[in-house]
Design a protein that fits this description.
Layout: H1 2-9, H2 19-24, H3 26-39, H4 46-56, H5 62-73, H6 80-102, E1 107-108, E2 111-112, H7 114-118, H8 120-141, H9 144-167, H10 175-200, H11 205-232, H12 235-238, H13 244-248, H14 253-261, H15 264-275, H16 283-293, H17 296-314, H18 322-336
Antiparallel strand pairs: 1-2
The structure holds 3-methylbut-3-enyl trihydrogen diphosphate (IPE) (2 copies) and magnesium ion (2 copies).
One 3-methylbut-3-enyl trihydrogen diphosphate binds next to helix 11.
């Protein structure tokens, strides 16, 4: 709570939200949500049941809003951005279904995860279905360029999740290795979603790269904050179980930094809990205490702030306007968010 408050302190104004972005994009966003509901349908009842569960639970729709806003900021007047934004959200939703199986998570968007309700098998298979729906939408769009960008992002996300799997429970993980994982599993889709705006408007390469850099840096900041929140959030607001990363032995930046400061006793604690997964009551609280003592949650937020600044700078090539201002506020939201 104190951490979240401190991000706002410097400006002493009301906390940033996604409201401005959502209001600006409301009509487009309604179309995206309608399309998502339409395309999650199937005669196999379990598919709309399970997909409807996670989709109706909400979610911030941040990635599709990046596509919609970047398209509008580039002066787009057509309708392609709606289907592409829906494809982006389908890819995101598919990765969440798979991620919750891999992470053995039981809370998502404030509800029981699909794997907790229907089991791992159903979650994996419906995730595959939604992922395929995304590709159908892209094929209907008909641009090989777009297909190239989103298929590349999908491959990199999967690589990131596998890379994370093989580096988990290893207390020797470096900050660089951690950043490589989050850049792949999270920042790639942010970058692709943002880049699309310049692609469908055929803007110069410089603007396309600027939007990709914006998304990439925002995505890294977003995941850094997510990894901080895994130890510090109010669970009800976050809608996910606090402490999931610790229980699974995921080596995120708050842990990497705490290990850097650790003496022999603390190092033994981290090895027992995260490498051997030998955890007892009070261990999570002790982990949070060590992170607080060494200031590593705050340092993670500082790191996120640097990436957020880079995201904001990337927008410099675009003229000021309502979309740019809303994207700017979205950057602030990603730093101050508690959900
Ligand atoms: C969750 O993303 C996965 C991460 C990259 C941390 P979001 O926090 O954007 O999830 P929803 O869509 O709003 O639920
Ligand atoms: C995000 O990773 C998942 C993907 C980007 C595929 P996390 O495992 O940290 O996200 P949450 O905490 O479950 O939302
Ligand atoms: Mg997870
Ligand atoms: Mg997380």
């Amino acid at each position: 709570v104190a951490l979240v408050a401190s991000t706002r302190g410097e400006e002493a104004k009301k906390p940033a939200t996604l409201d401005r972005l959502a209001a600006l994009l409301q009509a487009d966003l309604d179309c995206v949500n309608t399309l998502i509901l339409e395309r999650m349908q199937s005669p196999v009842a379990l598919i709309p049941q399970l997909a409807g569960h996670i989709i109706a639970a909400g979610g911030k729709r941040l990635r599709p809003m990046l596509t919609l806003a970047s398209a509008r900021m580039c002066g787009y007047r057509g309708a392609r951005h709606v289907a592409l934004a829906a494809a982006v959200e389908f890819i995101h939703t598919a990765t969440l279904l798979h991620d919750d199986v891999v992470d053995a998570s039981d809370l998502r968007r404030g509800l029981a995860t699909a794997n907790a309700v229907w089991g791992n098998k159903s979650s994996v298979l419906v995730g595959d279905f939604l992922f395929s729906r995304a590709f159908q939408l892209m094929v209907e769009d008909g641009s090989l360029r777009v297909l190239g960008i989103l298929s590349e992002a999908s491959a990199v996300i999967a690589e990131g999740e596998v890379l994370q799997l093989v580096t988990s429970n290893d207390t020797a993980t470096t900050e660089g290795a951690y950043l490589a994982v989050i850049e792949a599993k999270t920042a790639q889709l942010f970058a692709a979603a943002s880049r699309l705006g310049a692609v469908i408007t055929e803007r110069p390469r410089e603007e396309e790269e600027a939007l990709a850099a914006f998304g990439r840096n925002l995505g890294i900041a977003f995941q850094l904050v997510d990894d901080m929140l895994d130890y510090s959030a109010r669970q009800a607001e976050l809608g996910k179980t606090v402490g999931d990363d610790f229980r699974e032995g995921k080596i995120t930046l708050p842990v990497v930094l705490a290990l850097r400061e650790a003496g022999e006793v603390e190092r033994a604690f981290w090895r027992r809990t995260l490498e051997d997964l030998d955890q007892h009551e009070g261990d999570l609280a002790h982990a949070i205490e060590l992170m607080t003592r060494h200031g590593t949650l705050r340092a993670t937020l500082d790191c996120a702030r640097r990436y957020a600044d880079a995201a904001r700078r990337a927008l410099a090539v675009f003229r000021d306007g309502p979309e740019k201002r809303a994207l700017d506020e979205a950057v602030d939201f990603c730093l101050a968010r508690g959900h």
